[in-house]
Amino acid sequence: ISDFRTTLNTDGKVLIPQIKIMLNGELHYFSLLSTKTKSPFTKILNGIQGQLIDRTAETILKQENEKLISLNKEAYDSLKDKNAKLEKISNRLAKYLSPQIYKNIFESDSEHTNEYKRKKLTVFFSDIKGFTDLSDSLDPDLLAELVNDYLSAMTDIALKHGGTIDKFIGDAILVFFGDPESDGLKKDASKCLSMAIAMQNKVAELDKSWREDHGIAEGLKVRIGISTGYCTVGNFGSVQRVDYTVLGSTVNLASRLESICQPKKILVAPETKVLLEKDFKFEAQEAVRLKGFNQPVVPYQYLDLKETTSPEILKGDVVDIILKQPKDIESILHELKSLQKDYEDKLTKTRPSKNKKK
């Protein structure tokens, strides 16, 4: 009260913003404005005047608004924290999924996980020759470093060429072209083979590093098999866990071709060869019986520029020989000897006998 009087005498007025008063068991809020007044016309206006205003509804509304602002801030902070966690999970998940599959999952409106498609794809399969023995002989940390470097390099190449990385199985890599996105059967096959060529070129660089920098005498040798055909693609697995992957004989054929492929080479299936023979060079190999296939399969080995040279003409006094491949010379000599023998046999049969009487 003394502060009230002092302020009133000094300033001539006092404002008390909030006064709490209990009325009938309920808390009410008021504001009080007091001022000293003086009038020469009436004594009623002389003295101290005051105005008590009920601010209960306004105060309650303000309190509710402050609560809403606080709740909104808490919700925003919570949402921001959850978004940050989701982004971390998303970034981690992206490392386990091919970009095409990741995009298909998170941008698709469909909630169904049991959708399957029958599509014609080109499938790639590769592994490192002698990896099991190598893994048993190397220090675990060095092994992890080498394999991770190798898989990282192969992943970069696969993504650059638009391949869908299905999975890593130890040192083996399964990639397919044509799903979820396709550029057409021939283009998909072409991208797959181009990817395989780029991988073998990169492997040659890593091979040098393995030998010279890490003292691995065996070096790095990779085998590759490629097959084109119908596959079933979709989410396969259990209720708890599924994989977006491909199944079918085309996948098995790519794996079988890889298993019989020579190190540093690329074997393709007949259908893949037919799609690409106008743009790439291939050489037919001997027909082989592969596990899981009733009929023999003729693999085709991709020939790079080092293996394909311009035809060489060997000129002789009597005949000229067109040599398409340097390794053909042995077959040519064998064939010439066979022709020579046939010709000599014919001469023997047609030559008149010396003992024949006239």
Describe the structure using short key phrases.
27% strand, Alpha-Beta Plaits, 3 domains, 3-stranded antiparallel beta sheet, 44% helix, 358 residues, alpha+beta
Summarize the helices and strands and which ones pair or pack:
Elements: H1 2-11, E1 13-23, E2 26-37, E3 47-54, H2 56-94, H3 99-107, E4 116-128, H4 131-137, H5 140-160, E5 164-169, E6 172-177, H6 185-212, E7 222-237, E8 242-247, H7 249-260, E9 266-268, H8 270-276, E10 281-284, E11 300-303, E12 312-315, E13 320-323, H9 328-350
Parallel strand pairs: 7-9
Antiparallel strand pairs: 1-2, 2-3, 4-6, 4-7, 5-6, 7-8, 9-11, 10-11, 12-13
Helix pairs in contact: 5-6
Q: What would your notes on this structure say?
A:
The protein is α+β, with helices and mostly antiparallel strands and 358 residues long. The chain has nine helices and 13 strands. Strands 4, 5, 6, 7, 8, 9, 10 and 11 form an eight-stranded mixed sheet that branches. It has a three-stranded antiparallel sheet with strand order 1-2-3. Strands 12-13 form a two-stranded antiparallel sheet. A hairpin with a 4-residue loop joins strand 7 and strand 8. The longest helix has 39 residues.
